[in-house]
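Below is how a single chain appears once it has passed through the pipeline. First comes the sequence as given, then the structure the pipeline wrote out for it. We keep one example in the README because the format questions we get most often are answered faster by looking than by reading.
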Amino acid sequence: MALRKSKEVKFDEVRDRFGFLLRRAYQVMRASLENDPANTLGLTSTQHSVLTIAGGNEGLDQIGIARLLDLDRTTTGLAIKNLEKNGLVSRVRDKKDRRSLIIKLTAKARKKIPSIQDWALGAHTRNSSKLTRAEQKTLRRLLKKLAE
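Resulting structure:
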């Protein structure tokens, strides 16, 4: 069986592919969020998500948070480790299942949550302002469809 010559792909064609554009848009939005001057705690987007989920869902462990965020356990664990190092979360042994560690926000995190959420909302608002409301709605619908 003869090997077929593959079509030469130009860089512009690669840059126009869905996967490339989705990844690049994610990189731009993530950098905008993480490098925002209002990000006084130096949080990553993953750490922000973990704080949000842990704060709004008492009694979750690392696996529960990972499932809700559609993240792997390692990524979630690293985010939790760094949040713990910065005094924003603690791991508390579950009274019902001694093998499990519940992730809890610390008093420091609870105090900072309003400014953390303001920072994230501001960054998301700036990023989405590049699109009209109708475009935002359409993009959200299409991304959900692709993510199914």
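The longest strand covers residues 89-93.

See the next section for the split statistics.
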